[in-house]
Amino acid sequence: MNNITKHPLQALGYHFIDPKYLPEGVDEYYIRNQQNPRRNYRQLTAYEIETLVRNNNTSDNWNHILVDDAFDPGLVKNCHFYGLVRIGKLEPYYLEFHNLRLAVGLYNSTICSSDIGDNVVINQVNYLSHYIIGNEVILTNVDEMATTDYARFGNGILKQGEPESHRIWLEICNENGGRRVLPFEGMLPGDAYLWSRFRDDEVLMQKFIEFTSRAFDHRRGYYGEVGDRTVIKSCKIIKDTKIGSDAYIKGANKIKNITINSSADAPSQIGEGCELVNGIIGYGCRVFYGVKAVRFVMASHSSLKYGARLINSYLGNNATVSCCEVLNSLIFPAHEQHHNNSFLCAALVMGQSNMAAGATIGSNHNSRGADGEIIAGRGFWPGLCVSLKHNSRFATFTLIAKGNYPAEIDLRVPFSLLVHEESENRLKVMPGYWFRYNMYALARNAWKYQDRDQRTEKIQHLEYDFLAPDSVNEMLDALQLMAYATGKAYYNHMHTHVSDLQKEDYQKTGESLLKEKHPVLQQIEVLYEGLENSSRRNIFIKIAEGYQVFGEMIHYYGIKNLLPVIQRLAEEEDFSSIQQIFREARLEKWENVGGQLVPLRYREQLVQDIHSGKMNSWQALHQRYQEWGKQYEQEKQHHAAAALLALHACTAEDLHPDLLIQWLKKFVHIQQWIDEQIYLSRKKDYENPFRKMVYDHEKQMEKVLGRLEDNPFIIWSRQVSQAYQQQAAQILKKWETTSFHKS
């Protein structure tokens, strides 16, 4: 039975806060007055009351209607007021927004205990209760817009007297709730990552709860807010919602317990048919056309469109999710998922990712419980109709070909193409696929993500380059893995007695064969052991080519990031300082913390500082992110030097000018090869007869696709490449005549 209670009519609009939660000596408006400190209100004159009554307005007490000196009572018609209502300027203007033109004033509305700013339009709002409305706001054709005294505006906190069961959690990364986090306004991808990953650290988990609790006021009595110049039209229910300035909300079905961050520089928009409950929406977000989102956080400048469902998930900055369903996932920045039949569940996706149509990423239907997970490194691209099973893990920049992958996968080789060859009942891994066959897409995506990073406040430094400490470390590890697998395959092929051989022996033999591109590699099958939770014989393909391109790209990464410092020190003829950079370099683990790459020791120090109380708030944690960002380039340079030494199996003491000159010349050669690969991989689209057949002639194709020579990304990449080559040439020219080279 519905519990409908009756109260005296004269109480409507009053007693917002239960007396037991009111501090001594204050009234129910004390928090409202803090939210809206404006005090230049006066009481109505007898003439104004007469005009209001003549215009069919009512109030339970006209003395509780306070107004600005520039209040025009003729602009208030057919309204019913209850409780304390304070109204700013109402002047004879009309407001126009997107061809919507409405006269300033209050019309045909019921308004309970609210503050209304200057020159506002409130028209056909059936019920407006306990809101603070900014200046030049338009509210029209809204069914219900109300705030309760316990409104939390999407934050995972409790108000006075609330039981723990009322707290909102986000059950990200795992459907069983074992990685759940509390949402809060301003939550960054790194926050969600740290909170969800290290569940065994009970002190850290408790500290994060305390951070969140201290960041917000637990008193009852906060009013909902609508910022200046916000437009809300044709909506049904807006409840317990805080809305920033310059937002545009039209046709929403339901918005409940939500914070919508918005500003003049980064306005947010909510469109038709959306239903949003228990969430945080960042600055500059777009939510359109039938979206359903429940228990969620959208970081700034992300988009939900076309019926997408986002539940128990965190969506990172500059990401777009359309049409599809995303459940229990933590998604880092620059994610794309556009197709109605794609599905992402219980996953940690580390950014720069793209889900194709028909992709089912994570299935618990073939396991004993809904507690599986998928971890995917940066650049995760599952192709058409890919089906993956929990638990699985993928290295950075993995491309997965169409297919049903029936067992758990642990792919540790980056930049790979993974293929399920059903006819032979095995998986195939082609290492370095992206470099050799689609360099254009790889390089263009890095450029695109950087170009589309619209964040107005870049607290976390996001890495978009495909060659970065995380991917380079994976390539270095992959070189060892491939050498070991090749050596083992070789000895098995030769039927050599291998009982006395160690792992290092396999690696040494495999390394020699791969570097030589030995003809025997054409005759042996190199197994990828541990790739899949099955007894199938999964294999590497084109392993020698992949091994070679990994080495070249690691070398390229190392020199590219050291070029500025090498050039400066070369001008000073200071080779000893160059050597010192390599002496200080250390190859260490790095971690992707919400799209921000940091040495593992940074994160470990962060945890220690939280444990000790040195860091005691989200604000302090976010300041640490910014400090990390300032140190990133220097740390990456040290990592680049360490990667070069590891790749070439040498030490800083082995370094001499002639060797560095060789390295620079090799860098120039690789840069030229990258330019060629970018051009050729795009050129294939212009030469493919099956792509050309839909055009009557080449001129028509150019009109549709544009001329290859005019491709803006190719032009830009060539300019960048030429700058690198000129920089290297200047260093080489200097060194060929410098005194330390002659010595």
TrEMBL record:
Domain DUF4954: start-end pairs: 41-481
Pfam family, one: DUF4954
Entries under InterPro entries matching the protein: DUF4954, DUF6819
Domain spans labelled DUF6819: 583-732
Name of the protein described by the UniProt record: Uncharacterized protein DUF4954
Source species: Thermoflavifilum aggregans
